[in-house]
Amino acid sequence: MAAGGGGRKVPGCSAEHCGVRRDGGGDPHWSRPEARVWTVMLLLGTCLLYCARVTVPICAVALSTYFDWDKKQSGIVLSSFFWGYCLTQIIGGHISDQIGGEKVLLLSASAWGCLTVLTPLLTHITSAHLAFMASSRFLMGLLQGVYFPSLASLLSQKVHESERAFTYSTVGTGSQFGTLVIGGAGSLLLDWYGWESVFYFSGLLTLLWVYCTCKYLLSEKELVIPIDCLMRGLSISKQTKVPWKQLFRKAPIWAVIIAQLSTASTFFTLLSWLPTFFKETFPESKDWVFNVVPWLVAIPTSLFSGFLSDHLISQGYKTITIRKFMQVIGSGVSSVFALCLGQTSSFCKAIVFASASVGLQTFNHSGISVNVQDLAPSCAGLLFGVGNTGGALLGVICVYLAGYLIETTGSWISVFNLVAAVNSIGLCAFLLFGEAQRVDTDSAYMDL
């Protein structure tokens, strides 16, 4: 089966030439069979994205021991990812809006898969280990930065509005599933074969996914990206129908950006430091338990949040009411459990609190993540990129600040207080100013 491209027509570049469907040439959405297959493949792609992303956090203790790094140096390596991650969000989303999100996804996955495989090999032939690993993580951030903006662009144009929350939540479970896979398999590989094997495992699986997606979901014509189409995608045309100035004057746009910024940065902080927290606080515990259980819980909660959101909207509840309800759970309630995590000395309770915090964060998939598509489906990729850029920048600060706080105070409580505080700021902004009215057209708004 070959699915059509995911982007809008670019002025001066025919839809057929770019491999992109015309919006006016029939229903641009996927058929139900297409949507099912693409949802499964995108879920796997997101899973492998996180397998590659979490390799360093999973191996953080082993790498610190192997290269004799302290907490500050580990924080530099962990936070380097986000410096690169923030630089490609906006341009990745914009290009996806123009040439199709699936093309950008596959190009980036090919590159980060190769980088993951090569990292251990190159690390052993250099003497500047800290600089190389930090540079490698920076480049990984550059390559993975385009993924979620491309995904938002693709789904906003190919999935019906009534199915977006469940589809995005299903695909979003890949982040937890990937962390679960690398947490379980990675912990075993780490114990049996060393940290290098974790990189080989995630990198090779990514390349296999790219091959299967290209072979079975896209035709040869759709795999070709003409240079002129790509270059047009790199610049924002003055003839675009999207009123950019008016768009960024809208309070709901900034509300969802601030909320996305907050939730992304706190998720990155937990993702980066939770393995180290459990390893140091409960040194006798099994790695696979704390690297697997929280992410295992997150998979059904993400699916449930998407189902619940779409169901409530189909029952007549206003879209914005449901989006805000989901966000209260995703940012507010999850933060309460994060605070509890810093106060307990029981391993069993810590697993419960971590699982609840990580699991409830997935309700964000049915809150702000799809709210971007409610507000501006024609440029959802770019706007998602703006929010994720801010989240990555704040993620750099939060991940490094967490390492600094642990090193200077010797306590993990301050880290979880930081997570709760940042989440609260984003939640308040979304509750006060969030809306679900389309704002990327000059036509009368439809109250959703």
Brief descriptors of the model:
448 residues, mainly alpha, 21 helices, globular, disordered C terminus
Total helix count?
Answer: 21
Helix content: over 70%
User: How many strands in all?
Assistant: 0
Largest sheet, in brief, is: none
- How much is the average pLDDT? 81
Q: Tell me the strand percentage band.
A: under 5%
Return the structural class: mainly alpha
What is the C-alpha radius of gyration, as a whole number of Å? 21 Å
| String of helices and strands | HHHHHHHHHHHHHHHHHHHHH
Quick summary of this structure?
The chain has 448 residues and is mainly α. Helix content is 76%, strand content 0%.
Structure description:
By secondary structure, this protein is mainly alpha-helical. The protein is 76% helix and 0% strand. The chain contains 21 helices and no strands. The chain has helices spanning 15-18, 32-53, 55-58, 60-67, 71-85, 89-99, 101-123, 129-144, 147-158, 164-193, 195-217, 220-223, 227-233, 244-247, 251-281, 287-314, 319-341, 347-361, 368-375, 380-409, 413-433. Helix 2 packs parallel to helix 10.
